[in-house]
Specification:
With 415 residues, this protein is of the alpha+beta class. It has 2 domains: 156 residues, Malonyl-CoA decarboxylase, oligemerization domain (Butyryl-CoA Dehydrogenase, subunit A, domain 3); 253 residues, Aminopeptidase, CATH 3.40.630. Helix content is 55%, strand content 10%. The radius of gyration is 25 Å and the shape is globular. The relative contact order is 0.07.
């Protein structure tokens, strides 16, 4: 039955493409968009949506940008209609007045995006469309307003309830493994042998979120090492020829790489759910695990030190400066300056330990003078830590990290 359904779906999709190409070939993308919003028939809507997606995919960047400007200017909110609906709502909220306000306040381009999502493969195409928008429209306020419509819809479409957590192993399809290799954003995977060392040993795990509409496209994935104790070097974790630790001897799960895969889903948060779900699953699978930590980069440390005209000094000074940077250096909105710190602290983690010489790669030298940090996920405290961070900006940190930051504060004051 599944094979028959797939066959019928393929035949139907080809028919829709053929009909769309034959009937709509002379219309501009803008004309197709207006027709799709106004269409009432299911078949005509599918043909229009297919034609639009095919036409868009063939555009060069300049034409894509022009299309985005059309969406931003011609298919935005009707301010007059919103004002009238809001006035009526103010006179008394009824079902009719509230519905009128909802209709008026939603720009037509949101309905266009929904209708585009009717055809097979459209969700992935729309994610790529938003990636183009973010790439081409950066700094243009009108286009960033358009992006809010994409983001609003994607937040619903990619809700945690729709996501599927799948383990990634050496037996996973080559198609997915190639994408894991390409999307790895923290510690580059240099070869199939390198990938195999991260997936095949009994003390290694990898998990990814997928969406049913994009079954071969990982959205985000995490690589995990099972260890004895908390590690302080990523090179040791990834070393060629290292002996695998028997699963029964592991007491710590180390999240050493978390990579978002889809540029078009920027700002749609999956990491919080991913880490907590993986920690829960691993607790059930490996009962001996008592500690869940990351081994994370500190991507902004070197740049901050250069701005402050600070030299690394010895290992003790470097750890002090890193502790100060992670717990006290602020970015926009009085939040931690470091993006990885914002992510983990927002998830309820604690800044736990700092390690010098932990990432000796070229990237590690350039971004953090080789320093890395463990963020501790104490499952009994993550909710409390998250709430304090969200409400007051309080950063959860171990006594050791707080002491290092205080020493740095004294040193910097003297300088």
């Amino acid at each position: 039955m599944t094979l028959l359904a797939d066959l019928l779906s393929t035949v139907f999709e080809r028919r829709v493409r053929s009909d769309a190409a034959a009937r709509l070939g002379d219309q501009s993308l803008e004309e197709l968009a207006r027709d799709l919003i106004g269409s009432s028939g299911e078949m005509s809507g599918l043909a229009l949506a297919r034609a639009m997606l095919d036409r868009y995919a063939a555009l060069e960047d300049e034409a894509k940008l022009a299309f985005f400007h059309f969406l931003a200017s011609a298919l935005g909110v009707d301010q007059t209609a919103v004002g009238a609906a809001l006035e009526a709502l103010g006179e008394g909220q009824t079902k009719a007045s509230y519905r009128a306000f909802m209709v008026a306040s939603e720009p037509p381009r949101q309905e266009l995006i929904r209708r585009l999502n009717q055809v097979p493969g459209a969700t992935g195409a729309l994610v790529q469309m938003r990636a183009d928008l973010l790439r081409l429209g950066h700094g243009d306020e009108s286009l960033m307003a358009l992006d809010l419509d994409f983001r609003h819809l994607f937040a619903s479409w990619f809700n945690r309830g729709f996501l599927v957590l799948r383990p990634i192993s050496w037996e996973t399809s080559a198609q997915v493994l190639e994408k894991i290799t390409a999307y790895e954003a923290v510690h580059a995977i240099h070869s199939w042998a390198d990938l195999r060392r991260r997936l095949e040993p009994t003390d290694r795990r990898c998990f990814a979120f997928f969406h049913p509409a994009m079954p071969s496209e990982p959205l985000i994935f995490v690589e995990v090492a099972l260890t004895q104790g908390i590690p302080g070097s990523v090179q040791a974790l990834l070393a060629e020829g290292r002996p695998a630790l028997p699963e029964a001897e592991a007491d710590t799960a180390v999240f050493y790489s978390i990579s978002n895969c889809q540029a078009g889903l920027a700002g749609i948060s999956f990491g919080n759910s991913l880490i907590k779900q993986v920690a829960s699953d691993l607790s059930a699978e490996v009962p001996g695990l008592t500690t869940f930590v990351t081994l994370s980069p500190i991507p902004g440390l070197a740049a901050w030190m250069e701005e402050q005209e600070l030299e690394p000094g010895d290992d003790t000074r470097l750890r002090q400066l890193a502790a100060y940077y992670l717990t006290r250096a602020k970015g926009r909105g009085d939040t931690p300056r470091d993006p990885v710190a914002r992510f983990h602290l927002g998830n309820g983690a604690q800044v736990h330990m700092l390690h010098t010489g932990a990432d000796t790669s070229e990237k590690g030298h350039a971004q953090s003078h080789c320093v890395m940090v463990n963020y501790l996920y104490d499952l009994s405290r993550v909710t409390q830590n998250h709430e304090r961070f969200a409400e007051s900006g309080e950063i959860a940190a171990s006594a050791e990290v707080r002491a290092l930051a205080q020493e740095a504060d004294k040193t910097l004051t003297q300088e």
